[in-house]
Amino acid sequence: MAATAGWPGEPGGTGDLSEGGSQRGEPILPAGLLAAAEAAAPQLSVTDAMGLDVNAALLATVAVGALRRARRAGADLAEQAHEADRALREHGHQGYATGQLLRLNLRDGTSEFVNAGHPWPLQMRDGKVWEIVPEVHMPFGFSHYFHTQSKTGYRVQSLDLRPGDRLVIVTDGMLERNAAGLDLVDLVARTRQLHPREASRALVGAVVDASDGHLCDDATVMCLDWHGSAHSYRDAATGADLSSASHRNTT
């Protein structure tokens, strides 16, 4: 699993995720990445805060902090989403953040996710790529605009991941209007032989190039290859060709 991010005014840099959700070599930015390695159910999340300034970075910090605290307290994905929403309503100064939360069960291979107003993820199987159309809920903190303190109805949804599948989660910066001619689905398919680290770098690089190096928003990609649970069989022919990747461990 790997993630790459590019920010306005910068050519784009790679931040491989490690346990605990650190983004190596980069400060906290509007697009927040979190990876947590639990014993049997690792969890991943991507959040994207409103704006591009310091306030956006603070929003991302509040959202990621709330998600982390809730996860460590044993909350499920829906409860974590509620906590992130509550934190931004109370401390976000009318700001909001979209988010995608994902949990994988290494024992039985099942997976589940919550979408909070975030761009739809892409899934690839046997070389075919499609958008996962989730039940979309409001971004974290967005209920402030409706002047209500009631809990937003975040619900956990199941995700059909099979050994050899690739999952790609992006922020809306990957959908740059300056790169409207770029077919992201086709690009994901064409990078299927690359290791997730190289694939995520290629995806962000393509958007940067299509925008002539001038991004209007932060563009972040999280790329995950699912090899199955400990008891499942993986058909290596449908996954990444690791022979073309560098040998550094990024999982």
Topology:
Elements: E1 2-6, E2 13-14, E3 31-36, E4 43-49, H1 54-72, H2 77-91, E5 97-104, E6 111-116, E7 122-125, E8 128-131, E9 157-159, E10 166-170, H3 184-190, H4 196-210, E11 219-225
Antiparallel strand pairs: 1-2, 1-11, 3-4, 4-5, 5-6, 6-9, 7-8, 7-10, 10-11
Helix pairs in contact: 1-2
InterPro entries: Bact_Sigma-Reg, PPM-type-like_dom_sf, PPM-type_phosphatase-like_dom
GO molecular function, one term: phosphatase activity
Protein name: Stage II sporulation protein E (SpoIIE)
How would you characterize this protein structure?
By secondary structure, the chain is of the alpha+beta class. It has a single domain, classed as Phosphatase 2c, domain 1 (4-Layer Sandwich), CATH 3.60.40. Helices cover 22% and strands 23% of the residues. It has helices at 54-72, 77-91, 184-190, 196-210; strands at residues 2-6, 13-14, 31-36, 43-49, 97-104, 111-116, 122-125, 128-131, 157-159, 166-170, 219-225. The strands form two sheets. The chain has a six-stranded antiparallel sheet with strand order 2-1-11-10-7-8, with helices on one face. Helix 1 (54-72) runs antiparallel to helix 2. The protein is globular. This is Stage II sporulation protein E (SpoIIE). Residues 29-226 form the PPM-type phosphatase domain. Residues 1-26 are annotated as: Disordered. GO terms for molecular function: phosphatase activity. It holds the Pfam family SpoIIE.
